[in-house]
């Protein structure tokens, strides 16, 4: 089956300048040709889609999301305020809406079990391609340790699909990685510092894990062909993460205080996933210590992005959504533009570079011959106003592997007159 997207403005995700009046030929699940030549002869059964006045982009990618999380307050966080089935279906709705909004791939940074991926692959529910981490591996007292502010371990029954990521001793690090991989993790999520929303006493520059433990973690993950995404905001823990050779630094708010780490990241190809969107929410948190931390880190965070980008570190977009609900994932693209990237660079962070961060650049992330046809058609020009990507009514078409996952083509045609 052939589909042809005809005469749209193409932003291909490689960082190249936009191309006017491009035609994309899709055969089955892949892109067969990308051309600007006028072509008018197609097989009879080809589906021709008029893309004039619209922008063709690779399907968008979020490298840090928590799709199965639905709030920061403790009862929501631990999933004890509603039946498990209700929660599962709530998550299924997030998956469906995220795909319809133009996100064809998402890396989940803990909370989503591998069963959702299987359900999407089997066609039981619509959703993006998933790269799942299941849980956060951290030491006792780290952000993966679920002990309430009153000191109690919570009542949540153990879920075999979301293994406990708390590591008790150096000897427990490698088994923890193996347990997570056994349960279906595609990537290993760990944490070497506290964060804005972590408990009092475990803030953004407070460390978790020692270098030998983190080295064992990255060794074991890489031995099992899994990348390591590490929550690390600043200070000693951030240093240990980079030295241990993780594959991406998540948040990295105080990288500006460690110029030599930025150099190391650039040299070793370690990605930076800053997740700006979440800190806007933390700055309005009902908890004073969370608000304070989020305000304190703001300027550093912006400076960290500027310096890392200038040094040649590749940036990947991630919202860290879930705790603060599920706003449009494209909010992060706007945050990256406000922070100093051009719209074209910010789009690359949510397409080509994001796919590289996931290690999937051979399959998707750019519009090129041979790649999977994960494409979106947007009404208008996101280079003029990147915020249009947050408006569902502007997403005219979402293709995942050449199949129409969502569309508003009739409305697009009507708008064009
Ligand atoms: Zn996160």
Give your account of this protein's structure.
The mean pLDDT is 95. Helix 8 (276-282) runs antiparallel to helix 9 (288-311) and helix 10 packs across helix 11 (343-349). The strands form three sheets. Strands 1, 2, 3, 4, 5, 15, 16 and 17 form an eight-stranded mixed β-sheet that branches. With 417 residues, the chain is α/β, with parallel strands linked by helices. The protein is built from 13 helices and 17 strands. Bound molecules: zinc ion.
Summarize the helices and strands and which ones pair or pack.
Layout: E1 2-10, E2 19-27, E3 30-35, E4 47-50, E5 54-58, E6 60-65, H1 74-77, H2 84-100, E7 103-108, H3 114-121, E8 129-132, E9 136-139, E10 166-167, H4 173-182, E11 187-191, H5 211-223, E12 227-232, H6 235-244, E13 248-251, H7 259-268, E14 271-273, H8 276-282, H9 288-311, H10 331-339, H11 343-349, H12 352-358, E15 375-379, E16 395-400, E17 403-407, H13 409-416
Parallel strand pairs: 1-4, 1-5, 6-7, 7-8, 9-10, 9-11, 11-12, 12-13, 13-14
Antiparallel strand pairs: 1-2, 2-3, 5-15, 15-16, 16-17
Helix pairs in contact: 4-5, 5-6, 8-9, 10-11
The structure holds zinc ion.
Helicity, as a percent range: 25-40%
Runs in which pLDDT lies below 50 for 5 or more consecutive residues are: none
Rounded Rg: 21 Å
Q: Give the helices and strands as they follow along the chain.
A: EEEEEEHHEHEEEHEHEHEHEHHHHHEEEH
Distance between the ends: 29 Å
Number of helices: 13
